[in-house]
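Quick one: co-fold with adenosine-5'-triphosphate.
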Amino acid sequence: MANIMANEEVAKKQRDLAFLLDFSRDVAHVRTKPELEAAIFRVFDKLLHTKLSLIQVIGEDSVTLYPFMYDQALRNGSNEYFDEKVVVPGTVKESYTAKVLASEEGLVFNVDEEVASGNARAKFWKATGLGNMYSLPLRVGDKNIGTLWLLANSLSELVLQGLAAQISIAIANIQANEKLFAYKKQLENENLYLKEQIGKIYNFSEIIGSGPQMQEVYKLMSLVADSNTTVLVLGETGTGKELIARAIHNASSRKDKLMVKVNCAALPANLVESELFGHERGAFTGAFDRRIGKFELANQSTLFLDEIGELPLEAQAKLLRVIQEREVERVGGKQTIKVDVRLVVATNRDLENEVKAGRFRADLFFRLNVFPINLPPLRDRIDDIEPLAEYFVAKYSKNAGRRVMKISPRVFQQLRSYTWPGNVRELEHLIERSVLLTTENTLQEVFIPRKPATDQQENNFIISNRSLEEVERAYIIEVLKRCAGKISGTGGAAEILKVPGNTLHSKMKKLGITKADYFSKS
Ligand SMILES: Nc1ncnc2c1ncn2[C@@H]1O[C@H](COP(=O)(O)OP(=O)(O)OP(=O)(O)O)[C@@H](O)[C@H]1O
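Sure, here it is.
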């Protein structure tokens, strides 16, 4: 007799295990709530006389308890009670729920006893004709995530615990999936918005200038745009190098992805590599998380490296390797990652001179100098000044809600005779300011910066044949002298020059400025 009972016990355990295995196979594929619902009801069909009463999940505030799933059939005959008490949000403090959540492995309530003790919910439990309500905490690790309520006459401990564990994991997966989906949707929307913005701000038609030099630029751009060739855009500051880079990207087959931009001069030397190539967690002090670099971000798109001439030598070596191998290695990482990135780089420096001076690697220069595009300075294309000025007047007049429509001939004359050290950017800012200061329909006056006629030294400063680098060097030294050698912080040279202290430091290093220069008597 004892043997028969033991055999039955073993057989039952095997049936339970087979049933749980079946359920876990179904649940493993679940990604959404309807899928979980289908899996649960499929399995309950096999568990004789068992009904899912309710699954509740705990909200983000850890207090509110939301109905997640229930058997619609149980509503019959107790609609009002169901709608008012069962399928409305409750709290984890409700006495039955609190007991269930505090229990180790759940509780069993005898339906008849509950009815006798006046438990209002037990009335609809009773309507099912089933004897017990099994209620179990749903947990992931040590964290309560909800409760599971099942009606049945008898369920084994093994089945109950197995069901609760599988359902807990499935719900946690669904919630994580929903969060991920919402996050993805948000990123997609942001991406769309940014693309629209960029599309609005930059497109080919917004490059103004129809003189022969710009025609040559357009010809080169259209020849190279739809290839994967690296483009080197050369030109003084403010000549529109970034505008050209974006137009090349927008005219290429990569236009559906955002162009990624890195300004090599704006990054402290010690962060350049991590910015470009990414880093692994713990790669250096402060690297708390793994971060992907701009190369990975620009995969299948264009990476615009502005001010490439400022890239430190060490990063130049790494960049060369990435261009050759078409794969990156994150700082502190061992694994290489394939990238498909089109490079457009720009500089206002004479890179050949930089190579001669040992500040730029010759091999990298040759790799980058595959397809150079030279942007002419504004002073060499005086005929473009008029259409550019008109374009900026229309743009800023609209932006500021003004009705400035025309520019007076006198203003055009003034604009044409100025030398434009700051190029198109300087013209743009000048027009923006002038539009704001104008109340009439015609721009009668622009406030071109003038040096005092008496200050012969300053005039020489402008018209002498000094290179941009020499002027930059002399100006930085002047400012440093004025600040008694203080580089960063309040009253420091970086503050006056409106650049970060680190940038000024690396610029000084590049230009070979030492204390002897700014502490000298002259
Ligand atoms: N041909 C042009 N048509 C219309 N706008 C222009 C043109 N060239 C330049 N601009 C405008 O002038 C400003 C400066 O251009 P951009 O930033 O592209 O210059 P840059 O050469 O990259 O400058 P930097 O060397 O300082 O990085 C931008 O607002 C740009 O839209």
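If it helps, Residues 206-209, 235, 237-243, 306, 348, 388, 424-425, 428 surround adenosine-5'-triphosphate (CB under 6 Å).
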